[in-house]
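Q: Got a minute? One more chain.
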Amino acid sequence: MSKGTILIIDDEDKLRSLLSRIIGLEGYTVFEAANARDGLKKLGAENIDVVISDVKLPDGNGVELTQKIKSAYPATEVIVLTAYGTIADGVKAIKNGAFDYMTKGDDNDKIIPLLYRAVDKAQLQLRVQQLEKKVSKKYAFESILGTSKQIKDAVEMAKKVAVTDSTVLLLGETGTGKEVFAQAIHYASNRRNKNFVGVNCSALGKDLLESELFGHKAGSFTGAVKDTKGLFEEANEGTIFLDEIGEMNIELQAKLLRVLETNEFLKVGDSKPTKVNVRVIAATNRDLQKEAETGNFRSDLYYRLAVFQISLPSLRERPKDIEPLALYFLTQFSEKVNKPVPQMSNEFVEKLKSYQWKGNIRELKNAMERIAILSTNIVLVADDLPIEIRNAAADSANSSFSITEVEKQHIKKVLDYTKGNKTETAKLLGIGLTTLYRKLEEYKL
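A: Always. Here it is, folded:
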């Protein structure tokens, strides 16, 4: 098995043949070219790890060729061969991205250790590139499943804002995929090669969250034995995702506002501000505008966060997506437990669609994982569903004609029509805004 692929570009046939033989004996696959044009053709035809190129070529200069190679094939390393007295060419080549240079006429044994290091670096860079592509594909917008208008509209809005540096506020119930959207926005942006850092603002108390976000200086509190970076520093040049932003302490909100307005913050126990360049994506299942109106959330921070808002639909608002999502999760978890993927009967699918899914996609995913583990049926039926889903489906069938259910569905229909505008919804329903909020709370809408 070849250790790697090497391309030698040199118009001196004897030197080229000698190098080719020495390198080939080390277990490398070697290609040859007598000029820059043929060398570039070979690079386009083969996966080359390292190029060894002379500076003086019949149709070009090896220093300039280095720049072309690194521009077109970033993972490929270049070693430049210079004639006596042209060390400056080698230095210039390194500035153009060359791995190293050698003077022609040196002991040819020197090339092998140099080649080993260059091949190791090239192959590592290739693995990193492949991993980055895999990660980008995993978090791409194409990974967001669904054909309903609601989810397609949300994806289109996210795609448009992704290419900007605007702050984004994702709105939606718990489990609707807000973090998935945040990751997709990051990996579609020009920050994709930098860190994506997420934090749940409801998971930590005020002091811990402040230290987690902004870091701290040694001695600033008991147990702070060394200077520690915060998540904003970790996300520098990248993206920070602030999940459940509505739960953040109001005092901490003021410090977050400063970061958004000035791109700097104070670490806990520090007097010197730290500068960062971070894109902020926030998410909440609360009505932040209402929270700001009642004083539970800073209105200035709300307006700073809400530069671009995207509302993610609940799963019950996109019933046509339930079946493909369920099949996707079922396939994923069946393969994970080494079981054949069962079919879903019509009865099974209808039960899924009639369920309210208050936990949204997350709840559906958990249900499918449980079914994949426990079920032994080739075709899934209603009895394969968790008991709480079966019972809820039965209760739903019994209550579908009740006055409260009719009212609930009507309010939901008008909300959909106004795209969530509660003031407009209240007007169309002929009720006060306070009454609408009470009914939304009562019906969990």
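A: The first strand starts at residue 5 and ends at 9.
Q: Perfect, thanks.
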